[in-house]
């Protein structure tokens, strides 16, 4: 399990909890929860919330619950419940035996609603949604009271029971809290607690046709689970008075709601609604498309839970909305894979090289280092022969200035192999394209060192043609062209900001034979080309690789200048 270093992942919430511990507010308990609505897949923003909630529970020896906040059957599906469970587990947040469903508490919630009706604090309202909206008032004008607001307790109890029994059609009535239509806080203007929905629920089936609204349900769920610190994102700050009101009116166990800023990342969107639309419209290959900011997308792309934890630790937790530079996330996975990914050679855009003075038919096995960052990773054998592939970019017939790679007359090192010197090339007479490069090699430089101290400025990677395995490689670029895709001019569709070149598929790539049967999820560094992860689309002898991230760490360069955040 990833073990974040709690020392450096201290947040303002740790300060609050320290104070609670000092005053013994919760009897020494810390109980947090992650409460997703199962209406989509989890994304990196959810990971921030999971790391925070799980991290706090772990730091204080407390408990962390996973709870599905499943109060809206219309948008919720078992598929989402399954994927969320898998992703939270993969991140290493352990809920032990505390997997809960808000819907399991529907019976208790109903009892509490009756308690509020009996206390004159809730009433059945016959206005429809449009009428309720029209009577809500504005920031300066108080809302109008519903004509049904002063119904008798008996009538309310009778109507609410009949709502529950299914006597009324969807949308015809609601149960509303009786608070204050003149409150400056809209959330307090007689909010709806229950609506009628004749819909099958993934967890409770057809048992219910009245469903609780989020604001009513959430605090009750927290209360039932004896949560101590109910952590949510900033947009719920002005819902807190309502959260408190319900619990106070009922006189039940009352957790403390604490808000923090949600995560936004450059070059992507984070709203579940928008991510769902990308999937539904076929603009990506699915929820787990490696371009998506979803947990399953990041996993398929090659991200590790450790890198995500590290990212969450570095961005920290605060109360100001900001957008985090996606390069920080990329930096975190690079840092992790640098330590653990074995190095291999793979040629993405192959160009054939013939070593004219190398014996025909000979194949040598040369030693290659698996990971210079990890001496324990050892070495492996890579085959070398007369015909090789190198990257097209590593040869120039007419080199630009300071070109240290292969060009006529220039000598380079083939990684772990020999010094070779280019003596010419063959071109396609029709297109003028170079189809084959000819070289000679110096047998005295075996292993890549020259005995006479001769220096070469360039080292390039290669694979032996006879043993190479064909691979498909998928390169990913930002999903959106602009850093802030949510910021679109009035009337313009946010989807127009999609980067049309976010996916680049390369076929006919040539990789080391050791990768022929790479199992999906295998992570490697292709020397000089980046970190890659074998995709589930791979089949034996036909590997498919996703590029997780390039080797160029732009973050490391700018990290000194800022703190992980670009202000909106
Ligand atoms: P919506 O409510 O619009 O469906 P949501 O992203 O808030 O979307 P939830 O399932 O309610 O979805 O989220 C579960 C938890 O994750 C909530 O506690 C929420 O505060 C937190 N969360 C969601 N998005 C982010 C984010 N971008 N950054 C940090 N936490 C987030
Ligand atoms: Mg939400």
Give your account of this protein's structure.
The chain has a seven-stranded mixed β-sheet with strand order 11-24-25-26-22-23-12. Strands 20-17-18-19-13-16-21 form a seven-stranded mixed β-sheet, with no helix packed on it. A four-stranded antiparallel β-sheet has the order 4-5-6-7. It folds into three domains: about 5-260, HUPs (Rossmann fold, 3-Layer(aba) Sandwich), CATH 3.40.50; about 345-470, Ribosomal Protein L25, Chain P; about 470-568, Ribosomal Protein L25, Chain P (Beta Barrel). It is of the alpha/beta class and about 575 residues long. The chain has helices at about 10-25, 45-60, 80-90, 105-120, 130-135, 155-165, 215-225, 240-250, 270-280, 295-300, 305-315, 325-340, 555-560; strands spanning about 30-35, 65-70, 100, 120-125, 175, 190-195, 210, 230-235, 255-260, 325, 345, 345, 350-355, 365-370, 380-385, 385-390, 410-415, 420-425, 435-440, 460, 465, 470-475, 505-510, 525, 530-535, 545-550, 565. It contains 13 helices and 27 strands. Helix 11 packs across helix 12 (about 325-340). About 25% of the residues lie in helices and about 20% in strands. The structure holds adenosine-5'-triphosphate and magnesium ion. Adenosine-5'-triphosphate (ATP) binds near residues 46 and 272. Adenosine-5'-triphosphate binds near residues 45 and 233.
């Amino acid at each position: 399990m990833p073990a974040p270093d709690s020392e450096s992942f201290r947040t303002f919430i740790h300060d609050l909890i320290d104070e609670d511990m000092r005053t013994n507010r919760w009897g020494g308990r810390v109980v947090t929860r992650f409460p997703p609505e199962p209406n989509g897949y989890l994304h990196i923003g959810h990971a921030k919330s999971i790391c925070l909630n799980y991290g706090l529970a772990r730091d204080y020896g407390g408990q962390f619950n996973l709870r599905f906040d499943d109060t809206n059957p219309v948008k919720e599906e078992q598929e989402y419940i399954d994927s969320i469970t898998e992703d939270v587990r993969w991140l290493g947040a352990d809920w032990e035996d505390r997997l809960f469903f808000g819907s399991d508490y529907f019976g208790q919630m109903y009892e509490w609603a009756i308690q509020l009706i009996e206390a004159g604090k809730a009433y059945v309202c016959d206005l429809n949604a449009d009428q309720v909206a029209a009577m809500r008032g504005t920031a300066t004008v108080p809302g109008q009271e519903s004509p049904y607001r002063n119904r008798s307790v008996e009538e309310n109890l009778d109507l609410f029971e009949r709502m529950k029994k299914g006597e009324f059609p969807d949308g015809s009535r609601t149960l509303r809290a009786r608070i204050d239509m003149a409150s400056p806080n809209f959330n307090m203007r007689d909010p709806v607690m229950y609506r009628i929905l004749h819909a099958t629920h993934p967890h409770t089936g057809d048992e219910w046709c009245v469903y609780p609204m989020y604001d009513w349900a959430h605090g009750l769920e927290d209360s039932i689970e004896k949560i101590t610190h109910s952590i949510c994102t900033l947009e719920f700050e002005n819902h807190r008075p309502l959260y408190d009101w319900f619990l106070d009116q009922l006189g039940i166990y009352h957790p403390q709601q604490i808000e923090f800023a949600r995560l936004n990342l450059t070059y992507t969107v984070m709203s579940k609604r928008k991510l769902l639309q990308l999937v539904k419209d076929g603009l990506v290959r699915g929820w787990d498309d490696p371009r998506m900011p979803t947990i399953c997308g990041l996993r398929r792309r090659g991200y590790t839970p450790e890198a995500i934890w590290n990212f969450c630790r570095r961005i920290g937790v605060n109360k100001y909305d900001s957008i985090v530079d996606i390069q920080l996330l990329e930096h975190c996975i690079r840092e992790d894979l640098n330590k653990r990914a074995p190095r291999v050679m793979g040629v993405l855009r192959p160009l054939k090289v013939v070593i004219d003075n190398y014996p025909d038919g000979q194949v040598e096995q040369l030693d290659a280092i698996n990971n210079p960052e990890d001496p324990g990773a050892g070495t492996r054998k890579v085959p070398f022969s007369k015909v090789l592939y190198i990257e097209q970019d590593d040869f120039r017939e007419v080199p630009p200035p300071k070109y240290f790679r292969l060009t006529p007359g220039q000598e380079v090192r083939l990684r772990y192999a020999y010094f070779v010197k280019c003596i010419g090339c063959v071109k396609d007479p029709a297109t003028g394209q170079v189809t084959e490069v000819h070289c000679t090699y110096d047998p005295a430089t075996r292993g890549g060192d020259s005995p006479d101290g001769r220096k070469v400025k360039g080292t390039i990677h290669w694979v032996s043609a006879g043993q190479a395995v064909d691979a498909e490689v998928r390169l990913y670029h930002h999903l959106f062209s602009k850093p802030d895709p949510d910021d679109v001019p009035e009337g313009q569709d946010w989807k127009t900001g999609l980067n049309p070149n976010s996916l680049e598929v390369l076929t006919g790539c040539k990789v080391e034979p050791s990768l022929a049967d790479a199992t999906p999820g295998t992570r490697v560094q292709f020397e000089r080309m980046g970190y890659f992860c074998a995709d589930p689309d791979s089949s034996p002898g036909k590997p498919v690789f996703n590029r997780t991230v390039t080797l160029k760490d732009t973050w490391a360069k700018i990290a000194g200048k800022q703190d992980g955040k670009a202000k909106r």
